[in-house]
Amino acid sequence: MELTGLSVEDAKLAKEREFTEPFVLERETDFEGLSDLALKEGMKMVRGGRFFHFLSVHQDKGKAVEIVKDIFRENCGEEMIAIGLGDSENDLPMLKNVDIPVLIPHYDGGYEEFNLQNLVRSRYPGSKGWNESVEEILNDLERADY
C-alpha cells in the first residue's frame, strides 16, 4: 500500500493478479542474475513503471495485441486502428504492434527511449496523459473522417 498508494481494499484486489508477479529489487545490479535464474524456470523479468515483473516467457503484450486485433478483424470484417499507451520497457512489445503508439512520460517527466513509427509523446504522466492523448487521437481521427 505504501509503494502504490492503494487503499487496503484495492491492494487486496491487486494481489489477485493472474498473469504477472510484481516486485521491487533493492539493487538493480541484481537484475541480470535474477533474470537468468527466472529463464531457467520458464519465466522472464521485465521492468515496469514502478516495479519489476515476473511472467511466463510465453507472455507478451505485443502478442496479446495481435490476438485482440485478430478477434476484432474476424468479428467486424474490417481493419481497426489500434492505439496502445505505455510508459515502460514492458510496454514496448505492445507499442510495436499498434497503429498509434503513445508514450506516457514518467512522473519525473522523463520518457523511455523508444523510437517507433507514428510515436505520440503524451505531455502528462499517468491518467492525465492517458486521457489527453486518447481524446486528441480520437478527435484527430474524427476530423480525418475514419
List keywords for this structure.
three-stranded antiparallel sheet, 16% strand, 146 residues, Rossmann fold, 2 domains, alpha/beta, 5 helices, Threonyl-tRNA Synthetase, Chain A, domain 2
Task: Walk me through what this model shows.
This protein has 146 residues and is α/β, with parallel strands linked by helices. The protein has 2 domains: 8-56, Putative mannosyl-3-phosphoglycerate phosphatase, domain 2 (Threonyl-tRNA Synthetase, Chain A, domain 2); 61-143, Rossmann fold (3-Layer(aba) Sandwich). It is 38% helix and 16% strand. It contains 5 helices and 6 strands; from the N terminus they run H-E-H-E-E-H-E-H-E-E-H. The strands form 2 sheets. It has a 3-stranded antiparallel sheet with strand order 1-3-2, covered by helices on one side. It has a 3-stranded parallel sheet with strand order 4-5-6. Strand 4 (83-86), helix 4 (92-96) and strand 5 form a beta-alpha-beta unit. The longest helix is centred in the C-terminal third of the chain and has 18 residues, at 126-143. The protein is globular, with a radius of gyration of 17 Å.
